[in-house]
Structure to design on (82 residues):
């Protein structure tokens, strides 16, 4: 593994976990449509990173907060369904 790839490893792992969380949002959720787009962007950035694109880590860091916010909003929505 190259040094740049090693330094991005925690970022990649976190992005992959976020992708899995976004995939698990219920299709009935208002947030699922938004999550689909963010998930697609994350996957594209992960693919670009594995291809050696030097801009991919910055794009991941830009996209990930949006994904976390969607997961948070979806969790709140689930809590409101009592």
């Amino acid at each position: 593994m190259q040094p740049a790839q090693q330094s991005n490893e925690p970022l990649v792992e976190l992005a992959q976990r976020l992708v899995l969380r976004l995939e698990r949002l219920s299709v009935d959720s208002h947030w699922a449509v938004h999550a689909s787009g963010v998930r697609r962007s994350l996957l594209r950035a992960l693919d670009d990173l594995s291809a050696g694109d030097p801009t991919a880590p910055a794009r991941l860091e830009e996209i990930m907060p949006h994904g976390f916010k969607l997961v948070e909003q979806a969790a709140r929505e689930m809590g409101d369904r009592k």
Q: What stands out?
A: The mean pLDDT is 89. The chain has one domain: 3-79. The helical segments are 3-23, 32-50, 56-79. The CA atoms of residues 50 and 61 lie 15 Å apart.
